[in-house]
Design a protein that fits this description.
With about 170 residues, the protein is of the alpha+beta class. Helices cover about 25% and strands about 35% of the residues. The chain has one domain: Cyclic phosphodiesterase (Cyclic Phosphodiesterase, Chain: A). Strands 2-6-5-4-7 form a 5-stranded antiparallel sheet. The protein has a 4-stranded antiparallel sheet with strand order 3-1-8-9, covered by helices on one side. It starts with a strand and ends with a strand.
Length: about 170
């Protein structure tokens, strides 16, 4: 599966790691594993990666930088086809949501998690006791804000960036 991701600043990754230390029974994301998915592009069964990247770059042409804010902790308790629950850092970004919608017009949305169901977030951990996980919702965090000036094409199979694209000013 390939996706277009927003690079996560070190302050956000550190916040996610700190929260993860409170969830000893969960599968906690490790250093370098924190991502913010803008849009999944394909599973590899469709066009080649290069074709997916070219189509995405066409959509991104002229896309300006946008603001992102991480300001709280939340939990998905009803996750399709995945281990429940999922603790995440809540992301606020009208620009990111608008870009996601533009990409959904070109790349089919994944049912249940994209399109109208898209919730921008940075995953902290999956699994663990529901009571412990939902307690984290009340955790107060200092907001982190940044301007997204670059997006990464991400290969989920290898857990790494394949290439990136700058957003013009």
């Amino acid at each position: 599966m390939y996706s277009l991701n927003v690079p996560v600043p070190g302050r956000v990754a550190a916040l996610a790691r700190d929260l993860g230390t409170r969830l000893t029974a969960a599968d906690v994301r490790q250093r370098g594993e924190h991502t913010l998915v803008c849009k999944r592009l394909g599973s590899g069964d469709e066009p080649t990666y290069h074709e997916l990247e070219a189509r995405a770059r066409d959509v991104l042409r002229g896309e300006p930088p946008f603001e992102v804010r991480v300001g709280g902790v939340d939990v998905f308790t009803d996750v399709p086809d995945d281990e429940e629950p999922v603790v995440y850092l809540a992301v606020e970004s009208p620009g990111l949501v608008a870009l996601h919608e533009r990409l959904c017009a070109v790349f089919d949305p994944v049912d249940g998690i994209e399109g109208d169901d898209y919730v921008p977030h940075v995953t902290v951990a999956r699994g663990g006791p529901v009571e412990r996980v939902t307690d984290l919702r009340d955790t107060s965090v200092d907001p982190v804000e940044w301007t997204v000036e670059r997006l990464e094409f991400w290969d989920a199979e290898y857990g790494q960036s394949v290439s990136s694209v700058s957003l013009p000013r």
